Structure formats: C-alpha cells, structure tokens
Amino acid sequence: MRREEARMAEEPLRLLQFTKSFHIGGTEVQVVELLRGLPSSYRVQLGVLQDMGPLMDSVHRLGFTPEVFPLNGSLARPNSVVQVVRLARWLRQQRVELVHAHDFYSTMLVVPAAKLAGTKVIVGRLDLAHWHGAARREVLRGLTRMADHVVGNAEAIRRMLVEEEGLPPERVSVIPNGLDLKRFGARVREGLKAPLPDTKGAPVVVHVANMNHPVKRQEDLLRALAQLRGEGHVLHAFLVGDGPRRTELEGLAGQLGLRDTVHFLGHRSDVPAIYARADFGVLCSTAEGMSNAVMEGMAAGLPMVVTRVGGNPELVADGERGLVVPPLQPEAMAGAFRRLLADRELGGRMGAEARAFVERELSLERLVRRHDALYRRVARGG
Fold first, then answer.
1. Report field, pTM of the whole predicted structure over 0.85
2. Which end of the chain has less Cβ packing within 10 Å, N or C?
C-alpha cells in the first residue's frame, strides 16, 4: 500500500449526513439511528435544510449541532444557487470525503454542491417517487444519475431505478431499514404517554401513517371496517398520525357509522406501547418504500395486513408474517381482518414469525454494518 493510501486508511472517514429536517418520519428516524450507530472510525457531521422537528432533541443528545443550509421556499429561487455554492465551499473547508443525501430536497442541494467540491456523494431513494410530478421526477432522475452511488431500502425501489430510470445495477445498493430492538423494547416497557380509548376488551387494529397524502388510503381501512361491522363483527381501530386529511377522514368515519369504534389518536410518541395493546396492524398505502410503521408492528409481534405495493411484500411474506392484499380493495382487506379475527392462533404464529424476521434481518447492527461497508467502498474504494 502506498504511503498516502495507508494514511487515508488510518484517518477517520469524514462523512456528512444530510437530511431536510428532523420531523417524525421513517427517513429521519433512520438518519438518527445512523448517527447513533456509526463507529468512531468516522468523523460524522450533520447538514440540514431546517434545524427543526421533534427528533432534534435526540440529535442534540447525540452531540450533533447541524450546519443549516436553508432553501427558504421554492427550489427555483436564487437562494438555492447561493446555498449550493455555500455548501460546496463548506465541503471543501471541512475536507468532507463523502456526503449522503437522504431525501428529495436534500438531493436537490447536495448533488450539485458535491460535484462542485469534488466530494463523493450517495443519494438515498427511499420511496417510489409517487408524490412527484413529471417535471420533479425528471430532475430527481438526472441528479440521481450524477451521484456516485444510490441507496434504496427495498428491492422494489432498486427495480424502479434500474428498469425505469436506467441506472446501472452496480451503482445501486439495497439496504433495508433497521430497528434498534433494545430501544423498541424499552419504549414498550415505558408504557403509554396518554390513555387509549376503552374498547371493553374488543379486538383492536392499529394503523400508523401521516394524514398528509391520499397515498396512505386510510379511507380503505374505514370502508373495510364498515363492511365487517355490517356483518356483526366488533373491531376497533386506532389511527395514529395527523395531517390536513384528518377532518375529511373523521367525516367519512361518521358517515360510515364508525364513530364509536374508530379512534383518531393524532401524533403519538408511544407507538411501540400502542402496538403492544393491539391484535394486529395494517397499512393501506398505494405506494410505499420500506415502511417503519410495518417494521415496528412486526417488532411488536403483530401479524400485519399490508397492501401489495413497494417494499410491503418484502417485509410481510403473505401467510407467513402476516397477510398481503391488493391495494384499493377494502373488501380484500376486510377478508384479511375476518381471517385473523376467526383464527387467533394463526395470528399469533404470524406475529411470532414477524418478530423473528425483524430480529434476523432488520436489526440496527445490520443497518450500520451495511452502510459502513458501502461508505468505505464509495469514499475510499475499500
């Protein structure tokens, strides 16, 4: 090994993790886990577009003070160019070897800045780009192709990148999300942060998702519940999450005669404890990457009912770790619920296998180890 290569191998790898903000979401949670888990052989710094969000407390407790590069609104404003130039200068000053952009807005800023600075860059593609219009998706595609490497968290995303966006397969890696099971268990033991509605012993299904975008399709859950109620089944639902669609969804629950069995809980920080009090979980999305909500339900030992989109079937093998149904078909979802209500032993076996799968394949240690190997290969060819 040449002297310069030996010196580089001994020095901590200078890595910048970059995300939009630290509001509660799957991407942000995974960034926090990487900040917590990467070994001391890294000099990790943190960049954000906005230094806000409930997870900022966790970031500060880990000893990170993020460098802020605010977009202040539309990407089309001149300030975006200012921030690209400013970030490029900062990357050179800090001698950053590699920057990992974790989301759409970060990618818009980070990729051109990294190219100006001569810094290696990894782009995270963690969804199916379902919420972008055609123009945005084309821009994202172009910037993704400029990156040194791309990380998806599900095979469905890798297929989209290779087959639809034309990325060379060797420049795309799949690293599934990871879950810190010790911390998850501790959060279960901490218990509820606020009371839950009294279901008088009736079975409960839990749905965890924001209410910002129609892609989450909470209305399909409501219609499935209404079908079961019409058949005489009593099944309560806890809907965790909030957003502008909540009022509309509450109205639909009322129209379907579900006000007494459908409970809108809003944002909750005690999701593991809520899952621990449920019989099964559900996710109704029409598009999805690798859902942290599904992973947490599985970690709680619940059989999950999920739609056959994105990374959902990779997590929930149909009939083994839960049940998989077609999207946009409330009647199929009602059938899955009916099956679990009729056979509690089946649900228990599926839930146990779901928990074992998370322990085996989706640990935080695996997440960190895979990123560590990728970072070193991209930054230093190791």
1. yes
2. N
